């Protein structure tokens, strides 16, 4: 089974997860990236069973529209029962690193509005400690060097992602070398640097459900587990 097969399988599992819970008025939040793309392609089968979607990037909006799925403005939505998106890293407390595709800010906004955030990933994304994947940080262009100096003071090695401009017109710094033992504290600290729009740690609003694909099937990890069960798949 290839990694892409696992992405398809986990997208299918997410579709099954929401199938019985959506209705004609539902608006679904949609993430960005190759795993989210598989979800979008499969969501087309449920067209007519929900009202519309909100997309976390222009790329996802375009793909959704390509399937004839309506995409509406987040400001026109009162309730978002689900947000489905991939991740670059996920720990067993369901804190994530996201933004490998530079969509982190809109992803964080849509995730914040959703009642349930379902993260879909293949097992290569599961980690004990976040930070091996460089943390993407969206930055206002004029603040680039200032923010880089501040991130160095936090112990990281920021690298400018050249040639990338986000959907919001900003740049991305990828911060290498951080061993993130307290994801919430690091998320807050990075976000307090002036010029940072947001960073790719999703710990203050982590996932509610992690669907993790392996060659033997898709496992579910949920935050409703008791602390002693946390980290155990069922
Ligand atoms: O900005 C991109 C997003 O955070 C993606 O969800 C993340 O990079 C995972 O992407 P993929 O499913 O392609 O591995």
From TrEMBL:
Keywords: Isomerase. The active site is at 107 (proton acceptor). It is an enzyme of class 5 (isomerase). Pathway: Carbohydrate degradation; pentose phosphate pathway; D-ribose 5-phosphate from D-ribulose 5-phosphate (non-oxidative stage): step 1/1. It catalyses: aldehydo-D-ribose 5-phosphate = D-ribulose 5-phosphate. GO terms for molecular function: ribose-5-phosphate isomerase activity. InterPro entries: NagB/RpiA_transferase-like, Ribose5P_isomerase_typA_subgr, Ribose5P_isomerase_type_A. It comes from the Bacteria. Substrate binds at residues 32-35, 85-88, 98-101, 125. Its EC number is 5.3.1.6. Belongs to the ribose 5-phosphate isomerase family. Homodimer. Catalyzes the reversible conversion of ribose-5-phosphate to ribulose 5-phosphate. HAMAP family: Rib_5P_isom_A. This is Ribose-5-phosphate isomerase A. It comes from Saccharospirillum mangrovi. The lineage of its organism: Bacteria, Pseudomonadati, Pseudomonadota, Gammaproteobacteria, Oceanospirillales. The gene is rpiA.
